[in-house]
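User: My collaborator and I are trying to settle a disagreement about how two of our proteins should look. Neither of us wants to argue from intuition anymore, so we agreed to look at predicted structures for both before our next call. Could you fold the first one, then the second, and keep them clearly separated?

Assistant: That sounds like a sensible way to settle it. I'll keep them separate. The first protein:
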Amino acid sequence: MAKMATRKKTPRTTIKTRDDLEGVFGEYATLVIELDRLTAQMELEIAAVRKKYEDRLAARKEPAEALFADLQAYATLNPDVFGDKRSIELLHGTLGFRTCPPRVLQVPGVKVEHTLAAIDARMGGQWMRVRRDLDKAAVLASVAQAREAGPEAADRMAADLAAVGLRVEQDEVFFAEPKRELEE
């Protein structure tokens, strides 16, 4: 299968002069400030709607939770109602139990370290996982130290990194931060 050549996109711009730059940035700043204003207005309106429904929701939540607990107690105390099924159909919906996936839990009072040591001793570590990760902070610290030591050390470090399939990059990210203060 033929490999397609990838071309790096060259950015295009309508800006030719400093005045063009000031004009485009002014338009950008105006739009960003308008976006901020609209977002703030939207958040206020959302908060007002939440406030409007807050009391009505709260008034229904507690009784609903009490009724749910009553339904759960009934189902727990009367397993014969379900027969050989996990749920039953009622006029207003379905009532039942869902089987959750199995979980492995720590026995209360037993520390994880004790469990790991016991598994290692009894099972040869059969149920244990050893996770090895690249210590990126240590790599960056070594690179910084090599750069401080001089160009030869930096070159040796780059060769060492390449030998193990690593490289260190530092990107630049463009920003355009408009002044958000109100002009008078």
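The second protein, kept apart from the first:
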Amino acid sequence: MPFFLYALDSGRGEYRQVREIGLSGRESPFRTVSAEAGQEWRATDERILSLLGVERPVEHRILINLKPSDRSRVSLYRLRDVWGYSYEGWTPVALRLEGTLVDEDQDNPSTFKQAFKAPLETGDFVYEFLYLNGGTKRGKWTWGPVGRVNGALLWPDALLYFINVINQQLIVGKES
């Protein structure tokens, strides 16, 4: 599941792929957020872009290619928020994703994903749970060992935290 930085021309609704980006490892923005906030933390898309050194974060988006091997459709989701619950050596995370292009039929998906037009916001949100091998006191902040990213086992304290922040988003109507 690769993550990409896109430049956005909001007046035209045009996205242009800049480069693939890494959200794990030594330079993980989540390492910084966790160090600043402690066990429970949140990183908005603009905060993540800022930590990655992107100038003018408001003019960029992080899009996740959820089906990179699909040769006939495009599934790109905008990363909106990441919530983490850092233990000593690992951190389960919840990603709030907004569907930008969901299972869009394309003759040549790899070429299409380089530059395309799409809505700036869709309101089509989905949540994904993953984990990182890094926490409050140690770790390399790499994705778990099964593939590039994987599912997280959630203990009650972390699960309750995620349920509460997601519920708050839904109740307050901050799904934008």
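Some points you might bring to the call about the second protein. The helical segments are 29-37, 45-51, 109-112, 156-172. The first helix runs from residue 29 to 37.
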